[in-house]
Task: inverse folding
């Protein structure tokens, strides 16, 4: 591998690669670009302790994507770590000290330093009985995956003349580098031992498949399938955090497919595998599950065109879940047809229930459900039959989600009929053009009645209260139907409404 070239996220299938060169490059990069880490390692070495960069930090260094949050492990006990970072760090926190972890920061670099661990698990809960280890090897074997079971002793890797001795500093007893180069996901211990200790690791496996493009080893998939029920030991908050990271990965579809294949999805997101509907020769329709995965892929592609660096969790969840109402609404029609009437309404309710149970933030839940609810509305547009009033309502109902709704609707056009697909895209092009025209003419993003609450109260002689709200809503509906009204028209319409409601309007001066 040439100097300066990072390993691709899915690994490389090249048995002739010079592994020593890869290690040397990664360690060299660490020594040259992380002076804070090197300084910290020297401080520990001077005190007679070993300090290793470990886990995801080493993996990311090999991938050429190391950030400023670094994980270390050491033979020093927590109280010794506190003494060593005191006076060196700009800030220190010990919230994780009961698990042997001390946090510190210096010059914008955040470090977590954990004493070697050789934990024991009761395999009932998730938190281990903390047991400190005596060497790096016993610490690494307890980690989740081999690609996260590598360590680098930066003090040992640097030579007195400023060179690099990667062999002296790089610790990889479980073949993590080979796994990284091949894009394979395996566990240091057996998968059964690893997942029994911490079932969350099964979701982390799916997350790494989505984030890094890894392929899990067959024994990992077998263990995940056999032990799927163990995920019930994990709190919903931790499950939600892993699912969110998975969905924001480079290839979320692959992570979802692994969850479904291993039946983990049956435990944490059962509405997704439920979309695998049986299709017989007499009642043909799309495979809803596969269709939803295609929509997810296409939504991710559209998202990246606008912003390749910020995954959109709301859009991706909406794409995955937009058709979850179909199994509950499927009806076989005479003549061999199949219908899914109101599946968007049912789907929005199902999505709200599931996302709430998973403790997703309220704004994420509401936005995803609104997209699911609205995703089908465009199909009434035809070839442009909507009135301007209907276009206004589409924009108003979408609100801040309009750009996401555009992407979701376009992603949902998955027909294999090229002519039909092109016609759908042209129709949506036309709708977007009409929206832009109306936005420019009428400022639809801030649709308000032509009279505000104060004007309504003054004209009708009403005090603040529910009746003013009803009048306001009536005027807003008129605004959506007819576009902007001038002052005289708005007042006349309000007076007509008041008369129909039996409101006695005071004489105007």
Result:
């Amino acid at each position: 591998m040439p100097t300066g070239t990072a390993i691709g996220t899915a690994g490389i299938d090249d048995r002739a690669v010079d592994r020593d060169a890869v290690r040397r490059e990664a360690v060299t990069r660490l020594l040259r670009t992380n002076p804070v880490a090197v300084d910290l390692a020297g401080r520990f070495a001077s005190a007679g302790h070993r300090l290793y960069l470990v886990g995801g930090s080493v993996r990311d260094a090999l991938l050429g994507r190391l950030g400023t949050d670094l994980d270390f492990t050491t033979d020093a006990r927590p109280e010794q770590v506190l003494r060593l970072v005191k006076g060196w760090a700009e800030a220190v926190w010990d919230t994780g000290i009961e698990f042997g972890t001390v946090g510190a920061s210096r010059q914008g670099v955040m470090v977590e330093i954990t004493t070697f661990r050789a934990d024991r698990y009761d395999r009932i809960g998730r938190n281990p009985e903390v047991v400190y280890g005596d060497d790096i090897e016993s610490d690494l074997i307890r980690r989740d995956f081999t690609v996260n079971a590598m360590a680098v002793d930066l003090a040992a890797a640097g030579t007195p003349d400023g060179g690099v001795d990667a062999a002296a500093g790089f610790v990889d007893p479980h073949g993590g580098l080979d796994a990284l180069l091949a894009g394979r996901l395996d566990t240091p211990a057996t998968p059964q031992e690893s997942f029994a200790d911490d079932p969350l690791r099964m979701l982390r496996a799916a997350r790494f498949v989505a984030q890094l493009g890894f392929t899990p080893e067959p024994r990992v998939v077998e263990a995940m399938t056999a032990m799927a029920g163990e995920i019930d030991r994990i709190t919903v908050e931790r499950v939600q955090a892993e699912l969110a990271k998975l969905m924001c990965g480079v290839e979320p579809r692959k992570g979802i497919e692994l969850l479904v294949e291993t039946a983990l999805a049956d435990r944490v997101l059962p509405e997704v595998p439920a979309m695998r509907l049986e299709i017989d020769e007499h009642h043909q329709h799309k495979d809803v599950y596969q269709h939803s995965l295609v929509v997810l892929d296409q939504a991710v592609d559209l998202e990246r065109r606008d912003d390749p660096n910020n995954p959109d969790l709301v859009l991706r969840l909406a794409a995955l879940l937009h058709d979850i109402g179909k199994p509950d609404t499927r009806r076989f029609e005479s003549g061999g047809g199949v219908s899914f009437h109101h599946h968007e309404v049912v789907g929005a309710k199902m999505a709200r229930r599931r996302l709430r149970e998973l403790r997703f933030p309220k704004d994420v839940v509401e936005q995803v459900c609104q997209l699911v609810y609205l995703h089908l509305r465009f199909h009434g547009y035809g070839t442009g039959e909507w009135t301007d009033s209907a276009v206004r309502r589409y924009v108003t109902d979408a609100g801040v989600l309009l750009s996401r709704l555009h992407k979701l609707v376009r992603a949902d056009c998955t027909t294999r009929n090229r002519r039909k697909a092109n016609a759908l895209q042209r129709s949506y092009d036309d709708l977007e053009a009409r929206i832009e025209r109306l936005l420019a003419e009428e400022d639809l993003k801030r649709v308000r009645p032509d009279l505000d609450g104060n004007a309504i109260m003054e004209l009708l002689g009403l005090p603040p209260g529910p009746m003013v709200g009803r009048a306001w809503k009536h005027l807003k509906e008129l605004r959506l139907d007819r576009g902007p009204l001038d002052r005289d028209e708005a007042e006349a319409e309000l007076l007509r409404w008041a008369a129909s409601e039996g409101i006695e309007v005071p004489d105007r001066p």
User: Anything to note?
Assistant: The longest strand covers residues 109-115. The radius of gyration is 30 Å. Residues 1-6 have pLDDT under 50 and may be disordered. The CA atoms of residues 140 and 149 lie 5 Å apart.
